[in-house]
Design goal:
The protein is α+β, with helices and mostly antiparallel strands. It is about 35% helix and about 15% strand. The strands form 3 sheets. Strands 1-2-4-3-11-10-9 form a 7-stranded antiparallel β-sheet. Strands 5-6 form a two-stranded antiparallel ribbon.
Length: about 375
């Protein structure tokens, strides 16, 4: 199977059998002139879709995908598990003794990394600087009583899972999660999935546009409009108004830091490539064993998320498909982002998909168009069986 250049307005290529994906995205582009996106799909280790379209978007453009960044956390943890350096069933305090304060002495690593520990924020809220220096932010988080008894409930630790995972990685390896991911995963595979970028990559960055209503977006909207009381407390200080020049400088600083939970800088090809390299191998052998992938993707919790107030399911770091986030079969795993981006792998079909978008319909979460593409690709693959 080989990629062949298409003749539509979209840039990029699709392999034989995937023309309907191009057709779908072309229809969406016609319906919404502001639609700017990238899409990459691997089948096993073979790139079968590589498309982009819209104003200012090139094949190698980079965007911040918000929580799609968490896939880097998931695979970093998977590498540590594969190497025997981390046991998901062990107590967090075995690796990080200070964590055991305030009734957290028996919390398992798997609970910490599946949003069950009850530390979705600090009181008062962590500053951007405390998130950027994970050891500082983590010290504040562990020095408080969890918001619920660990294991009694789950709720999205949207920013703090990155802080907590980073400190766990540092305790085990002596390196920050950003350093570990770059050295052990990103650089050896030359992936456009960066936890922190320097000035040399800024010319490729496309700034995201504000979330506004768009024509042609499918329902249902996959993200809650009204988080519960805990969610309002967690997200109260997410957006701080700044003058335009100050805001631009702040965003550039966030990209340079690359907080692992929210501020990676990626292309769609980088997202899809991360999954494909891990599970199938593109430039070499897969960098995670099938046994570890299955363990990371195993459902840990399912039900109403106490932070975002809607149905969700999580494995170890990774999201699992739910009716309102239907990106694959029951073994699929990945993560969406507040700005509409999406990345996942589905073992049932062998598909690894990466998607970025410059502006998404409100109120956030995976772009409905990305979920429509995921459903179409799943139908294509299942029809081959």
């Amino acid at each position: 199977m080989s990629l062949s250049a298409g003749t539509t307005a979209l840039g990029g290529s699709v392999a034989a059998g995937y023309q309907s994906v191009r057709d779908l995205l072309e229809r969406e582009s016609h319906a919404d002139p502001e639609y700017s996106f990238q899409l990459a799909v691997y089948r096993g280790g073979e790139l079968v879709v590589d498309l982009h379209g819209g104003e200012g978007i090139a094949a190698d453009s980079l965007m911040v995908p918000f929580s799609v960044s968490k896939n880097a956390i998931g695979f970093s943890i998977a590498v540590l598990v594969d190497r025997g350096l981390l046991d998901l069933d062990a107590r967090v305090a075995d690796y990080w003794p200070e964590f055991g304060s305030h009734g957290k002495q028996d919390v398992r690593v798997s609970e910490l990394l599946s949003h069950q520990v009850g530390l979705p924020e600090a009181i008062p809220t962590l500053s951007d600087e405390e998130v950027a220096v994970a050891a500082v932010g983590a010290a504040r988080l562990v020095d408080q009583l969890p918001w619920w008894r660990p294991g009694a409930a789950f709720g999205y630790h949207g920013v703090t899972i990155g802080v907590l995972a980073s400190e766990l990685v540092r305790r085990i390896t002596g390196r920050t999660l950003q350093e570990f991911f770059d050295a052990e995963i990103r650089a050896p595979r030359s992936l456009d999935f960066y936890l922190g970028i320097g000035p040399e990559l800024e010319s490729r960055v496309v700034e995201l546009q504000p979330v506004l209503p768009q024509a042609g977006a499918a329902e249902p909207i996959p993200f809650s409009r009204t988080p519960g009381q805990i969610g309002r407390a967690v997200f109260a200080n997410v957006t701080i108004p700044r003058p335009p020049d100050e805001q631009a400088a702040h965003l550039k600083w966030q990209r340079s830091v690359g907080a692992p939970a929210v501020y990676a800088t990626v292309s769609a090809l980088g997202i899809a490539g991360l999954f494909a390299e891990a599970v199938a191998g593109v430039t070499g052998e897969p960098f995670v064993s099938p046994q570890t992938i299955a363990r990371m993707a195993q459902t840990q919790v399912v039900g109403i998320d106490q932070v975002i107030g809607i149905g969700r399911s999580y494995g170890i770091v990774f999201q699992k498909p739910t009716p309102n986030l239907a990106f694959g079969g029951f073994r699929a795993f990945g993560h969406d982002g507040a700005g509409g981006a999406l990345g996942f792998h589905d073992p049932a079909t062998g598909i690894s998909l990466g998607y970025t978008v410059r502006r998404t319909p409100p109120p956030g979460g995976a772009d409905a168009r990305a979920l429509a593409v995921a459903a179409l690709v799943q139908r294509i693959e299942l029809s081959r069986a």
